[in-house]
Amino acid sequence: MKTTFRLPVTLIVCGLVAVGCKPKGPGDMAMGDAASRVYVAPGQYDEFYNIVSGGFNGQIGVYGIPSGRLLKILPVFSVSPENGWGYSEETKPMLNTTHGFVPWDDLHHIALSTTNGEHDGRWAFANANNTPRVARVNLRTFKTEEILEIPNSGGNHSSPFITENTEYVIAGTRFSIPMDNKDVPISSYKDNFKGSISFIKVDPQSGEMSIAFQLRTPGFNFDLSRGGKGPSRDWFFFSCYNTELAYTLLEINASKNDKDFIMAVNWRKAEELASQGQGRLENVEYVHNVYDERTHTATSTVKKGVRVLDITEFPELVYFIPCPKSPHGCDVDPTGEYIVGSGKLAATMPVFSFTKFQNAIASKDFEGDFSGVPVLRYEAVLHGEVQKPGLGPLHTEFDGRGNAYTSMFVSSEIVKWNLETLEVLDRVPTYYSIGHLSIPGGPTAKPHGKYVIAYNKITKDRYLPTGPELAQSAQLYDISGDKMQLLLDFPTAGEPHYAEALPASLIRDNVEKFYRIEDNEHPYAAKGEGQARVERNGKDVHVYMTAIRSHLTPDNIEGVRVGDQVYFHVTNLEQDWDVPHGFAIKGATNAEILIMPGETQTLKWVPDKTGVYPFYCTDFCSALHQEMSGYIRVSPANSNTPLKFSTGVIEGEAAAAQ
Amino acid sequence: MQKLTTLTRLAVAVSALLLISAYFVPLWQILMWAPQYPEGLEMKIWIDNITGDVKIISALNHYIGMKHIDVSMFPEFGYMIYIVAFMIGVGLLASILNRRAGLIVYVILLIAGGIAALVDFYLWGYDYGHNLDPNAAIVVPGMAYQPPVIGTKQLLNFTAFSGPDTGGWIFLASGLIAVGALVYEIILSRRKA
């Protein structure tokens, strides 16, 4: 009896041991009081704004930290039928390029404007990776105000990083291409393909962008970049890969060299050369789109010509720092002394010293040159290497207390290490395969520390499953102590790449609540119901419409014919916070529009059939929102139905019968 | 004719001069809160104007048929500046002429003015709250929306408060000083007698 009893007991014990030996599941990782530390009570505000790139949705997501709540999706490079961005007549020009109207892009990186290297809460810059452009968002209105196309670029990835006082925004090409849209064999890469870095001047008052000059470089791929700060403020650092100049099967052919480069550019010198008229003017075309807050309308202008400085022609302008294995991130610490290169295929992570960099230049401590540009000796510039940091280092942010935090894509973790000693201090897993990471103020001279946010590339089992296509996952960690602590896991929209976070106090009190109707200079605005009217000009019918709770004026329109182009210019007469109105009409082949208080937006509508078409307010504005509607009568193309319009006029039945 | 003490003359002059503030600060305020307006809406009544969230309040009130609030609704704004100027003049005159009769006239004028203002405000409020557009979108049978003269009142989803603003308080102080001065004079003369 005893022996038969013993066997199951042994099996159970073994089973328990085996379960105990399994690695701890990710579900158990959050620490005790994590919930209370991310809890923002109803009616309370988050401490930080997190301005997050949307990746392939082409938009910016605005999140609150520490709650991880999504506050807004702000359209930038992609059309947004939900509010009419890219569909309204006013916003269509924003998405114009030399290729025509481009309704989508891939928005990878955010740069928040800085003054003296610290966040100033004025603008957010964002890059379009696919059809190269840079956008500027006004953080007073959270609206995209400007989009500048980048000529001579094959994909704007190394962008939109900025200099210490937002003097310049950078646009470095990801892919080298033949300049001036030349038609050449791809195999002529080494001879014909060049890299291009644009320096975009930012007007210190208005923020308006203009291409000041471009650097012409060998045909590398430019990945990321950072401006120097403090002692290194006059320099800009770019990670380069494909120094092999490969043009096919890059995963092998661009991974051959033991070291690629970090390209260091003395932008002050470049600025000086450009202002002296050095280099050459190249004849290129690019498009500049500006949204005017007063006319509520964008204009698209074609610009011509750009000044080009070939880096091989100007000594002391550019130096190459060897950096192991296809560096991805290239991040400058808050003091401006250390430059961290993240060779995504390398076993160690080099940290370069700006002091040593200057000494190496002074003593000409070069190991050779590339196309005439000096290559500094690796050891001469090296502060040291972080040993065994993890696998696949990508990006580094800083906490302002001498620590750096690097994302590890392959080993799916954040690694904390000390900038001076280069000693690894802590590591936490991310779920899963982290790309970028963000610390509030992390890339600036004055980080706020407190949290690090991981933006991951793989979501899998983190949330309730929603079919094969999933949201992305982000994690929030507390970094105020010695050990990083996972606090929160939250889904994100699009596919976030880089993001920046800043204290809410820098933005919150400056945010506009509505547009002043007195300031509305839209040419088709009706700034009162008395100005509401309908005008015909050939086949164009302009409806000057007003919206106020709870009616549209005019709400009865007749005399429109099939084939007319009807422009509904809707002015929202409200002057109170959060009373938008919307406008939609049956059969519209574009979208709806949302009109903020004091704003005018235009929806174009081309009726293709006769009949009476209802239109209505789409934004639930008031108790009588359902009544906020109207009719437009469409008569045959050759009819003589007189043009008339009204609101609140009830005609006699006899008149109606006619 | 009874004369006044120097202290009284000074007090009456101060009381009259305090009224000058009526031209520079709001006299009355109406505050409103609703679930959608946790930050509140305010309306400030000045000697010749009405300011604050008047447009927003009018936009909300049109649903229940209340009139659009506009400066032209209030003929008072046309003559209040003269009435107050007259009061200041009487007060200063009472101080200068140094006669108790003058002080009595000034005190009566102040009290009468205060009462008249409140009655006038009540009458306007009654009309504004009762005289509703019969075609209003929302008609609540038996409901009137007269704002309180002083104090707090619930009007549908709004809690409305009405009370003196800075100028109103100064007015009150001015009146109390004048009344106090008169009482002081009366007590003084009785003691002498």
Topology summary:
The complex is a heterodimer of chains A (658) and B (193).
Chain A: H1 2-21, H2 34-38, E1 48-53, E2 59-65, E3 70-75, E4 96-97, E5 100-101, E6 107-115, E7 118-128, E8 133-138, E9 143-149, E10 156-158, E11 168-173, E12 177-178, H3 189-192, E13 193-202, E14 209-217, E15 221-227, E16 235-241, H4 250-253, E17 259-266, H5 267-275, E18 280-292, E19 297-310, E20 318-324, E21 327-332, E22 338-343, E23 349-353, H6 354-362, E24 366-370, E25 373-376, H7 378-381, E26 382-386, E27 393-398, E28 403-408, E29 413-418, E30 424-429, E31 434-438, E32 451-456, E33 472-478, E34 485-492, E35 499-503, E36 533-537, E37 540-548, E38 551-553, E39 556-561, E40 565-572, E41 581-585, E42 593-595, E43 600-605, E44 611-616, E45 629-635, E46 644-646, H8 653-657
Parallel strand pairs in A: 14-19, 37-40, 39-45
Antiparallel strand pairs in A: 1-2, 1-35, 2-3, 4-5, 6-7, 7-8, 8-9, 9-18, 10-11, 11-13, 12-13, 13-14, 15-16, 16-17, 17-20, 18-19, 21-22, 22-23, 23-26, 24-25, 27-28, 28-29, 29-30, 31-32, 32-33, 33-34, 36-37, 37-38, 39-46, 40-43, 41-42, 41-44, 44-45
Chain B: H1 6-18, E1 28-34, E2 37-45, E3 50-52, H2 54-61, H3 76-97, H4 100-130, E4 151-155, E5 158-164, H5 166-192
Antiparallel strand pairs in B: 1-2, 1-5, 2-3, 4-5
Helix pairs in contact in B: 1-3, 1-5, 3-4, 4-5
